[in-house]
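Archive transcription. Copying these from loose printouts into the bound notebook so they stop getting lost. Printout 1 of 2:
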Amino acid sequence: MSRRSRRSGKKTPRLNVYLSIFIAAILIISVGGFYVYENSAKPSQSSTASSTGSSTSSSSSGAGPYAVLDTSQGTIVIELFPNVAPVTVSNFESLANSGFYNNLVWHRIVSGFVIQTGDPNTRDAVNSTRNTWGQGQGPDTEPLEANSNYPNNVGYVAIAHTSATTTGGSQFYINLADNSELNGQYTVFAKVIQGMNVVDAIAALPVYTNSNSFTFDQPINAQSAMLISVTIQSTP
C-alpha cells in the first residue's frame, strides 16, 4: 500500500467523526429552535383558561374593575370592561355606588337564555307593582357600545334595551347560553368570573309561564330572586 493510501486511510475515520459531530450539532439546534417556536406559539395557560366556555377569542384582562353582586342565591363576581364600553361601565359603576341596584328583583328569568335585573320598579319586590316590572330604568342612558370581540356568550353581561331603541339604561342581563342572535345589538360590558353556579341557581327558579299574563317570565317567589347589592372594587 502506498504512503498516500495509508494517509488517506488515517484521515477517513476523522472525517467521519467530524461529520457526525456536525450533523449532531445541526439536529440539536433544529430541535431546540422548534421547541422555542412551539412554546411561543402556544397561548399561556392563564389566557387559555380565561376564555374557557366562550367561543370568542377575547378573554378577560384581569385588570378589573370588578363588581360583586350579592344575591339571594349567593355571590356573583363580574369583571367590567371599561376599555370596551367606557360610557356603559361608568354609568353602571355610578348606579352601583349610589345604591341604585340595592334590593331589586331578577325580574326576567328565561331558562337557557338570560336572567335580567336592574329595574327600579322591582325594588323590595312589591308584588302590587308587578305589572310595571321590566319597564323602569335609571336616570341616565348610554349609547350602544357593541364590540364584535365581545359577543353575547354564556357568562357575558350586557345592557338591555327595548326593541324601539339601541340606547341602554340600568337594566342588564347575564347570558345563560351563547346567544349569537343578540350580537351587535346590545352592549356587552362585563363577564362573570366567579359564581356562575349562582347564576344557574337563579335561572332554575320557578317562574310564571302564562304568556298572556304580565307576570310572564317573572319569578313566582320574588324574595328568592333578589339582587341585594352591587359593590364596585379593584380586586375580585
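Printout 2 of 2:
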Amino acid sequence: MPVDVTLPAVPYRPPLPQDVWQAWNWDPLLMAGLVLAGALYASGILRVWRQAGAGRAVSYVQVAAFACGLLNLAAALVSPLDAMSSALLSVHMVQHLMLMLVAAPLLAFGTPPVAFAWILPRRSQLARWWRKRARLRQAWHGFSQPAVIWIMYNAILWLWHLPNLYQAALLDEGVHIVEHLTFLTVALLFWWKLMRDRSLSTGMGALYVFTTALVSGFLGVLLTFSQRVWYPVYGVVAYGWGLTPLQDQQLAGVIMWFPGGLIYLAATLLLLGTILHPRGRPEPLGAEGSRRVAVAPRRSLPLLLFLLLGSACRGEAGAAEAVDRPFMPGGDAERGAEFIEVYGCPACHTIPGIPEAHALVGPPLTGWVERVYIAGAVPNTPDNLLLWLQDPQQIEPGTAMPDMGITEQAARDIGAYLYTLESGDGD
C-alpha cells in the first residue's frame, strides 16, 4: 500500500535505474583532495623506502590498506553510488558505512606516525608554533581522550540522522559536504585512537568498539521497525527502484544494524583475541630495533643470578659509574626537551618526561645513558650521538630514522636530555 508522503521541491533530480551509470561526481575539489592525499602519502612512503628499504618502517600491507581506503572514498563519493544516495535512503546508509567503517579504519591503519614524519620533512616551524600554543595543546589533549572521541563519534552519528539535519543535508550540497566531512573526521579519530593510543588498553579498546556497536545498532533497530517515514524528502522516488519509502527506510536500518554491527563485532573479537592469546601479539621493538625474545624460565635463572650479583656490587662501583656516565658538552637538557617536541621525536618514540611521547614506531629511548651502542652500530659517545641526530645515514645506511635537519646546538641539547634518561625512569 502506498505511503502518504509529500515530495518537497528539491534542487536536484534523483536518478532512476536507467540513467544511474551516467551520474558520476567529478567535483573538482573532491577530485583534487583525493589526488593530493594520494600524492602526499606516496611521496612520504617513497622517502621512507629510499632510506630504509622497501617495506621497512611502513609495510606493504599498510600501503595497500591506505590505497584501498582512498579507493573506497572514491567509490563512495565519486561513483554513481553518490547519486543513488539522493534517491534511496538505503544506498545513503551504505555510503555512510563505507566512509566510517571501511575507509576510515583502512586509512588509519595505513598511516603510522612515521609516514607523517616523512610526508612533512620540514615541519619544524609548524612544530615550533605548536609548542608555543600551550592552551591549544591542552585543549587538544582533552579533546583527543578516548571517552571524548567516543562521545563525539556516536553523537555525530545520531545528530546527522535526526530528520531535520538529515533532510537539510539532502537539500543543500554545502550541508551535505559538512555531513560527510564530520563523519569521516570523527571516524578517523575513532579508529586512529583505537590503533595507535597506548593509553587505551586492549580491554578498554574492546569495550570502546562494542559499546559503539550497541549505540549504532540501536539506531538501526529504530529505523528498521519504525512504521512511519523519517525522511519525507525522499518522497516517492523509491517506487522507481521497486521499493516503497518505508521499505527503503527499513532496508537502511537493516544495513546499519547487521553489516555495520558485524564490522564492529569483528574488531571487538580481534581485540579480545589478543587478550586471550597474548603470545600471538607482536612484541615491541627492543632498544636496538630488534624484537625482544622470550626467555624460558629455567634458562633465565643464570641471568637472574648474574643480575642479583651485579646489583650487590653496584654500591661499591657507584663512584666509578658516576665518573663514566657520558654527558653532552655544551648541551642544555631543559632546552633539549623542548627541541625533542619541536622536531617531532614523540611521533616515533617513547621518551620519558616528554608529554604524549608513547609511540612504538621506533625503539623506546628509556635508559639511553646506560646504552652501549647507538643503533647497534657505534659506541654510545657524545660525538657519535651528535652524528646520529644530524646525519643518521652515516651511522646506519638504510635506517628508517629521517634526517630532520637538526642544528648542531639543537643536537647537543637533545643529547644532553637523552643522557639524563636512566632505565628506572617512567614513561
